[in-house]
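Support request from a user on the community tier.

User writes: "When I paste my structure tokens into the form, the page sometimes reloads and wipes my input. The last time it worked, I copied everything first. Here is what I submitted, just in case something in the input itself triggers the reload:"
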């Protein structure tokens, strides 16, 4: 149904006057249907390969999410001219986090020659980059006490794998085929017109190193500056303190308003018991049983890299079946939909948790409109903990757990009448939201800004709300 811009603006303005983020519920699908999650079958997408056939591109692929590329890109009418692009994406595929590995794993995971590279540089001084390679020394008495995890592994947990690096390069190259000519980006990285931003987690810098090869192919041997904020206030990861956001999320998960959350954990008791028996995880280990995050990460990281699902170390007949893994994936997807979209307080949570980054985005767009910035392209490399609250802030119509390499692209256009519009792409296509803005295709920039104001207010408003 068509809704006039005036009505959209009026609806958003009412929310802004009320001073409260309005929650617009997402669509009802198998993702957020708890009955289907427990009684359905199959995975919610692709979990065993970075490759998606062209005929199925756009399908949810946890290992390598669909992104902007020339084959599927739809150029707007000639009345619109692209002025500026800002991309935010999750890093590409990696090893599991150390906290998500079993005490001792039954599969091998080697990272010989593919570890993170570090170095320093200064004017007039040459340095040699060093590459990390994990190892253990038996003379260290704590070595025998610490969990071996993946026995004999040379990996850090986490680190971007060689396959994840290849996906990063391809991602950058795909973006270049779309935006280089449209924005006039050269083959070398120019910090006057382009910016790369990372978080304090080294895996985002690993991905940035691959993206840059694809985005700016003549910058392979150069030192390219990546913007980074202090971990005490980084808006991208995000790590800035917001007590109100933490309390709100705790309330609708484990707290007084968390009936749905507690129900799904209760219904999953038998599944947890089956997984714990195979993995050796203690049933009272709260980290593994507050959500399916740990099991999801462990199983999906293995499958994305072609590794087998785990078995019990003492009884090889006890293994995680594909059916069990698929149920874990359905449950993880439900959890993300609930936390960031379905829970009525999720919109307010997202506004608090990711409002600082959105305000920075707004500032970049306004500076471009005002002629204060020559920057044409900014690329942010972040995490699922970044993408999820952003999707919650924009109130995407169907929430998923943002997979590896998932991206949101903000395109700023002006028209022949010198009016400004924004198009937001999710998975390479215009994002469908549940808000009065509808599908974010050529939305008047003033309406988009009004929506941001309705959700988060000013920088001072956000700071005050976080510390109430």
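"...and here is what came back when it finally went through:"
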């Amino acid at each position: 149904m068509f809704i006039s811009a005036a009505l959209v603006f009026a609806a958003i303005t009412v929310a802004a006057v009320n001073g409260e983020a309005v929650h617009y519920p997402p669509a009802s699908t198998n993702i957020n249907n708890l009955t289907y999650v427990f009684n359905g079958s199959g995975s919610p997408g692709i979990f065993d390969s970075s490759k998606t056939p062209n005929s199925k591109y756009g399908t949810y692929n946890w290992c390598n999410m669909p992104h902007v590329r020339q084959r599927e890109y739809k150029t707007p009418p000639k009345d619109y001219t692209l002025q500026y692009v800002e991309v935010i994406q999750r890093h590409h595929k990696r090893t599991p986090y150390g906290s998500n590995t079993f005490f001792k794993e039954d599969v091998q995971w080697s990272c010989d020659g593919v570890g993170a590279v570090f170095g320093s540089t200064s004017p007039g001084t040459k340095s040699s980059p060093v590459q990390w390679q994990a190892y253990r020394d038996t003379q260290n008495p704590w070595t025998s006490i610490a969990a071996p995890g993946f026995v004999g592994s040379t990996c850090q947990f986490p680190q971007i794998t060689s396959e994840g690096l290849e996906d990063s390069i391809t991602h950058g190259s795909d973006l270049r085929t779309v935006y280089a000519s449209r924005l006039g980006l050269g083959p070398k990285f120019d910090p006057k017109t382009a910016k790369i931003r990372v978080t304090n987690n080294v895996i985002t810098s690993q991905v940035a190193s691959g993206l840059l090869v694809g985005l700016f192919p003549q910058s392979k041997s150069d030192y390219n500056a990546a913007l980074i904020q202090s971990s005490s206030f980084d808006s991208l990861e995000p790590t800035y303190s917001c007590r109100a956001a933490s309390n709100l999320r705790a309330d609708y998960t484990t707290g007084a308003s968390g009936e749905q959350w507690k129900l799904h954990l209760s219904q999953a008791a038998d599944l947890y018991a089956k997984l714990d028996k195979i993995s050796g995880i203690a049933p009272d280990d709260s980290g593994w049983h507050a959500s399916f995050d740990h099991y999801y990460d462990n199983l999906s990281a293995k499958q994305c890299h072609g590794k087998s699902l785990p078995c019990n170390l003492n009884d090889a007949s006890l293994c995680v079946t594909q059916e069990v893994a698929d149920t874990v994936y359905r449950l993880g997807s439900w959890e993300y939909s609930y936390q960031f979209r379905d829970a009525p307080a999720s919109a307010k949570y997202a506004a608090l948790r990711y409002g600082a980054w959105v305000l920075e985005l707004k500032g970049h767009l306004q500076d471009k409109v005002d002629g204060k910035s020559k920057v044409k392209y900014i690329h942010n490399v972040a995490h699922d903990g970044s993408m999820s609250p952003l999707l919650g802030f924009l109130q995407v119509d169907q929430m998923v757990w943002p997979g590896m390499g998932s991206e949101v692209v903000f395109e700023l256009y002006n028209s022949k009448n010198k009016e400004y519009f924004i198009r937001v792409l999710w998975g390479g296509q215009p994002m469908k939201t549940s808000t009065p803005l509808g599908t974010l295709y050529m939305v008047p920039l003033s309406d988009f800004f009004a929506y941001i104001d309705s959700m988060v207010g000013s920088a001072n408003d956000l700071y005050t709300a976080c510390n109430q």
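Agent notes: The reload is a front-end session timeout and is unrelated to the input. The radius of gyration is 23 Å. The first strand starts at residue 80 and ends at 90. Escalated to web team.
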